Amino acid sequence: MSTTTKPATKSLLAEARDVQRAIDLIRLGARLQVLESETNLSYERLLKLYKEVTGRSPSKGQLPFSTDYFLQWQPNIHASLFENIRQSILKNVAVDDIDAIMRAWRLYAEQMHACGLEPLLSFTRAWRLSRFMDAGMLIRTRCTCCGGHFVADPYVNKRHYVCGLCKPPARAGKGQAAGALRAHE
């Protein structure tokens, strides 16, 4: 008798986990490039799965690759909330990084909806943010006024850092976009 049955079972279980993870990622709005990065499934399989889950073809084009987006006033507040949730999960729960991102994004989205705000971070942007943070391209730094931790450029002067909530830019919160943060008058 051959013992090749055990590895085949293991690979079937691993494949089933990858398929379930891909389904969960698709339902959260992940782009195809994220699925390719976070699973061991082929592009063709992921494409077919994406179409089956969503009923449409995936978005085309490159993923955003600039840290600048996360440093703008309103996106920075959202990015900082998401990243603080993710760091808390990573610190307190034994999960894979992608599972921490998924949990953090769900909590972030729930918090935004509870506050009547539109989430500015798509799942794919949140995933990209986590990659920038893990690579040291962005860091979390403490605001010298409120003590909160905010996403910042790694070269920021930490001794004098003031967040966008404590010192918003002149036009911050004046826009008319639905679900946007508003400055109190």
UniProtKB/TrEMBL annotation:
Query: How does this protein assemble?
Result: Heterohexamer composed of two FlhC and four FlhD subunits. Each FlhC binds a FlhD dimer, forming a heterotrimer, and a hexamer assembles by dimerization of two heterotrimers.
GO BP, sorted A to Z: bacterial-type flagellum organization; positive regulation of DNA-templated transcription; regulation of bacterial-type flagellum assembly
- Name it: Flagellar transcriptional regulator FlhC
Entry's Gene Ontology cellular component terms: cytoplasm
CC cofactor note: Binds 1 zinc ion per subunit.
User: InterPro entries given for it?
Assistant: FlhC
| UniProt keyword Transmembrane helix, yes or no | no
Highest taxon of the lineage: Bacteria
Positions with a binding annotation for Zn(2+): C143, C146, C163, C166
Q: Which organism is it from?
A: Tepidimonas ignava
Q: Which UniProt keywords apply?
A: Activator, Bacterial flagellum biogenesis, Cell projection, Cilium, Cytoplasm, DNA-binding, Flagellum, Metal-binding, Transcription, Transcription regulation, Zinc
Please give the Pfam families that the UniProt record associates with this protein: FlhC
Q: Which cofactor does it need?
A: Zn(2+)
The record's comment on protein family reads:
Belongs to the FlhC family.
Q: Which GO terms describe its molecular function?
A: DNA binding; zinc ion binding
Q: What does this protein do?
A: Functions in complex with FlhD as a master transcriptional regulator that regulates transcription of several flagellar and non-flagellar operons by binding to their promoter region. Activates expression of class 2 flagellar genes, including fliA, which is a flagellum-specific sigma factor that turns on the class 3 genes. Also regulates genes whose products function in a variety of physiological pathways.
Q: What is its main location?
A: cytoplasm
Localization: Cytoplasm
